[in-house]
């Protein structure tokens, strides 16, 4: 490899690294999207707020663990104790970004400035999204680790709303794709992402990566935003060179 080409590769890697670092350092990725902080549809009155893994209170950590157990233990079966331990470690990472969904306590609370709304003005959390800005196959991506909702707010368009917001956050921070993992046993989630939201099984997913010796219980899904990401993560046509 000649020096010029090597320098170009190193410069590209540095640019991507800086992009990830800059996106990860943002305290409130929701700030450019104030209109998405409130969800008032289908008899729901909700408020969204940002959080960071290394700033979670003990009560919020306990809530996350409880909701994960409620929603996911049945899908993992005997693997749940190991997965629960892994998820406890993941949730407190400094790289972990959260969107918390809170139910508004009183009718006109949604009119309060989003920057002044406090924990006291909202009651219990009704769900959360855990996501990170990271690299996948050298592509800058927003990786959705978890989207978990209480049963009382499911089936009311909230999941689709949150994933639309995730796409906006990814685009705003110049990520090239959104990536997430879905258990093969979770048929509803698979249908939601592939049929409703248009996600595709990634070429790096176990079922497509020729991992013949590994009986995977999950698929890696993706939605790409540029030609290079599409080529790498969906194994489509090679991107056009400038």
Chart the SSEs and their pairings.
Blueprint: H1 3-24, E1 38-39, E2 46-52, H2 58-76, H3 80-91, E3 97-104, E4 122-136, E5 139-149, H4 158-172, E6 177-183, H5 187-196, E7 200-201, E8 218-224, H6 227-234
Parallel strand pairs: 5-6
Antiparallel strand pairs: 1-2, 2-3, 3-4, 4-5, 6-8, 7-8
Helix pairs in contact: 2-3
In short:
The chain has 242 residues and is an alpha+beta fold.
Question: What would the keywords be for this entry?
Answer:
242 residues; alpha+beta; 6 helices
Describe this structure in words.
There is one protein chain. By secondary structure, this protein is of the alpha+beta class. The chain has one domain (about 5-175): Gcn5-related N-acetyltransferase (GNAT) (Aminopeptidase), CATH 3.40.630.30. The protein is about 35% helix and about 25% strand. The chain has an eight-stranded mixed β-sheet, sandwiched between helices.
Query: Sheet bearing the most strands, described?
Result: 8 strands, mixed
CATH class: Alpha Beta
Residues in helices, as a percent range:
25-40%
Average predicted confidence as pLDDT? 90
Task: Give the domain tally.
Answer: 1
Shape: globular
Extended strand count: 8
State the CATH superfamily name.
Gcn5-related N-acetyltransferase (GNAT)
Q: What proportion of the residues form beta strands (DSSP E)?
A: 15-25%
CATH fold description:
Aminopeptidase
- Given helix and strand content, the structural type is alpha+beta
Poorly predicted tracts of residues: 107-122
CATH architecture identity: 3-Layer(aba) Sandwich
The count of helical stretches stands at: 6
Rg for CA atoms: 19 Å
Q: What series of H and E elements makes up the topology?
A: HEEHHEEEHEHEEH
Strand neighbour order, sheet with most strands: 1-2-3-4-5-6-8-7
Distance between the termini: 20 Å
